Amino acid sequence: MLFVLMFWGVLGTPRPPEASSGPRPRREALGFAAMAAVLGLLYVLSRQVSFEGLAWIELALLGMALFAWLRRKAVGRPALHFILGLALWACAVAVPWLADLNRLP
Q1: Is there a domain that residue 12 lies in?
Q2: How far is CA 1 from the centre of its chain?
């Protein structure tokens, strides 16, 4: 998942908002592909993980989205950019740990 975010440009070098020009169909297509992959994995997880565990996993994924968005907005603040990157990484690492912790018997 971190590879998809890096490829998508979330974890790359930050650019100012005015540097983007016009719509990016490839980026939007990659976003939809990433969303489809996440939804497919959540469906598979729903068959193997308890309901409470699935809720925690979804909260970790929501945290990843929030930290990725905030990190993208933290242009020009290297310390905040680094801290948000660590929080994004922590949420990404928490997802497989939560899946294993809440596995159905």
Answers
A1: no
A2: 7
Distance (Å, rounded) from C-alpha 26 to C-alpha 16?
A: 20
Length of the chain: 105
Instruction: State pTM to two decimals.
Output: 0.64
Q: How many structural domains are present in the chain?
A: 1
Domain for residue 82, yes or no? yes
Residue 81: give the domain boundaries: 41-105
For the chain, how many helices (H) and strands (E)? 4, 0
The 10s digit of each residue's pLDDT in 21-72 is 566 788 888 889 999 998 898 788 889 999 899 899 889 989 999 999 999 9
**Residue 54 placed within a domain:** yes
51-73 helix and 25-46 helix, angle to the nearest 10 degrees:
160
DSSP state of 48: T
CB atoms within 10 A of CB 99: 19
Q: How crowded is the C-beta side of 81, counted as CA atoms within 13 Å? A: 13
